[in-house]
Design brief:
The chain is elongated. It contains five helices and seven strands. A hairpin with a 2-residue loop joins strand 1 and strand 2. The longest helix is centred in the N-terminal third of the chain and has 34 residues. The protein has a five-stranded mixed beta barrel. A two-stranded antiparallel sheet has the order 4-7. It folds into two domains: 29 residues; 136 residues, OB fold (Dihydrolipoamide Acetyltransferase, E2P). It has 205 residues and is α+β, with helices and mostly antiparallel strands. The chain starts with 11 loop residues before the first helix and ends in a 9-residue tail after the last helix.
Length: 205
């Protein structure tokens, strides 16, 4: 008998059982891999995972001053969060919401995506929305003083966003009519504070 180092040799039944268990584990791993692939494929086909880019969709409702619902081509609905534009809080929120409703309810929009993120953490489509080739709703909100420029994100329109907001403040449009609106988002206060802090330059001597 071969020296097995003190180990008890497996019986044919034990060896067969071990092979059976290995096949079971391999089968489960394969099913998990197939399920994961199927999920990712399905997720990427969901409206908002860039599948809606360039399609014209009807706006059906308003969620806030910077978000609305759309009717999708498959007969469903989805929520859109406007990229780069953040509506103010009360007392200016209602005016911002009315402005958005007047511009988009019952009209068709085309979505454009910028960057790698196409949905927010709560599942809303994150995009630029256009009524025409030259009329961006996100920019219109900022232009007429009904949204802040979101300084936490970068888009290919960032410089245009910044210039548009500066013009709205200069001309006292919308929420800027009485100076800086109050309350102001915490992230914007931090951004303004950073701008006001002096830049120190250390010289090597």
């Amino acid at each position: 008998m071969a020296d097995l180092g003190g180990r008890t040799p497996r019986t044919p039944q034990q060896a067969a059982l071990r092979r059976h268990r290995m096949w079971q584990i391999a089968g489960i791993a394969l099913l998990v891999a197939i399920a994961a692939t199927s999920y990712l494929s399905h997720r990427n086909r969901l409206p908002g995972a860039r599948a809606l880019a360039g399609e014209r969709m009807m706006v059906t409702g308003i969620l806030s001053g910077d978000a609305f619902t759309i009717h999708t081509a498959d007969g469903g609905s989805d929520a859109v969060q406007l990229l780069g534009a953040i509506a103010p809080e009360p007392p200016h929120a209602a005016e911002s919401q009315r402005y958005l409703a007047d511009r988009v309810i019952g009209r068709e929009v085309v979505l454009q995506f910028d960057g790698t993120q196409s949905r927010t953490s709560d599942g809303r489509i994150l995009a630029l929305a256009y009524l025409t080739e030259s009329e961006c709703i996100n920019l219109a909100l900022v232009r007429d003083g009904h949204a802040f420029v979101d300084r936490r994100v970068q888009t290919y329109l960032q410089s245009q966003f910044a210039q548009t907001e500066a013009e709205a403040r200069k001309r006292a449009r919308g929420m800027w009519k009485d100076g800086d609106p109050d309350p102001m988002p915490a992230w914007r206060r931090e951004w303004l504070g950073a701008l006001k802090r002096p830049t120190t330059v250390e010289s090597n001597r």
